[in-house]
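Amino Acid Chain and Its Fold in Token Form
===========================================
What this section holds: a protein sequence and its matching fold, both as plain text.
Structure line: whole-number tokens from a learned vocabulary of local backbone shapes, matched to residues.
Purpose: to set a sequence beside its fold so the mapping can be learned.
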Amino acid sequence: MSNRLFDASVAPAAVPEADSRGPWAYLWWLVRIRPWPLVLAAALGVLWMIPLALVPLVIGRAIDAAGQDTGQTGLYLWSLLALGLGVLQALAGAGLIQAAVGAEAHALSTTHRVLMRQVVRLGAALRGKARSGDVAASAAADVESIGNSFEVIGRTVGAVVAAVLVAVALTVTSPVLGLAVLVGVPAAVLSIGPLLRPLQERDEAQRELMGVATSQAGDIVAGLRILRGIGGEAAFAARFRRTSQQVRRAGESAGRMEAWLQAAGVFLPGLVTVGIVWLGARLALNGTITAGELVAFYGASAFLTLPVSTATEAAETLSLAKVAAGRVCTLLRLTPDTVRPEHPQPLPAGALALTDPGLGITAEAGRLTVLTGPADRMADLADRLARPGPAGPAPVLLGGVPLDRVDPAELSARLLRSGPADTLFSGTVREELSAGSARSREALARALYAADASDVVAALPGGPDAWLDEGGRALSGGQRQRLVLARALLAAPDVLVLEDPTASVDAHTEARIVDRVAALRAGRTTVVLTDSPLWRGAADRTVRLAADPDAAPGGPGGPDRSAGVPS
């Protein structure tokens, strides 16, 4: 088994930029970038529907031929034609299924990759711009709704063409019946329209509540251990139950409207069929049409229920796809906090110093610097040191260049931040740690050794080729943290910012990691945010931050200057 996340052929970067101006614009963009699956599905849909439309007419001709005294030749010919239509329909139906699934797969995979690319672009900014439940629901329910709309297009085009063909054939035979078909079928389809808007509104309401419920469920699972510790598990479970009941009620409301829509899709074309049969019977009694033509009219009118039901399904599916595409566009229109500057400044070659003039912090080039301070400030400080922030009087400098003046691609290649929020994705250990980059076996072994994770990999069946489940669920907290650290070390950036990298390991393991990381990173800039005395003991320089984040540099809340000296 291989992980296709790092396969260039399906990489999100290979997808063109999506048109996120609106839901219809996005759906049309999906069609434009790869139209052939839909074109093929539409052509096969026509070839599948036309035999169904023609069979009643052929049977009617066969009945009339059998009633004539001209022998059985006409009956045999019409029967053979009916058989040929059946074979054509079977072959076209088999191809239609494959083409429709191909069109659906295109919409699904492209939307997934577009969403993945946007999530990567937003990075940590996503958490402040969208609920995690909305992102999860878009990646699941919304993508599926968009895919369903592409699957139904081929059948819908075939249904429309076949309905027009039947209407024309009936008009040629009997203008009165043809007119009834031409008026009745469109009227039946248009009568379904008023039900679509309420369905959209109820589906949007359910989708909104699903996003809230998914976010709550994720928060509860992530903080379950803490909730149990403070006795809040029952309260949060009750809150989630209330939300889930709201989702259920919204789903029932949308389901009732969908049931009415399905009922209308059966009842309205049924009325058209009854009317055509009644009118055709009267024409047959008057001698205006033959018995075979009456049978043909009845079969054709019965067939018309299929195009109408297909049109109903397409209207419902496209309505839901519009809602889903609107949600996707909302996510795609979010902008990252970090944008490429108009005139980026290149970073100098070699080891880089990392300086925060606002807090008076300097991590000297090629040295190990440890920052200690209140735990509630460490995550924000790591973000500030590793990501371009809002323009201010004292931006963080990397090699003397403000972070917001560096090209984001160069910044991500030379500055890496790793912390407890980092996760492991599914894939082999080798793929996960190298992230698809070319890394030698020796480099991987050195990174695992420095993170004291060689034994973790050796214990897995298959070693570096062992498969990791998403999140590394089969590993302990300490094992996951060591593999995350090994991944950061294997990347070998010029500047590495580590937030509490040994919080989940015991003291003996931590001592080995500290010594090995210091040796591996010798000559490159490493910043470790931790209160561990082992890290402070190995540091070239230690800086202690006071508790007040608003204090002036060097003041009571700034760095402790006495601690800011070589250890």
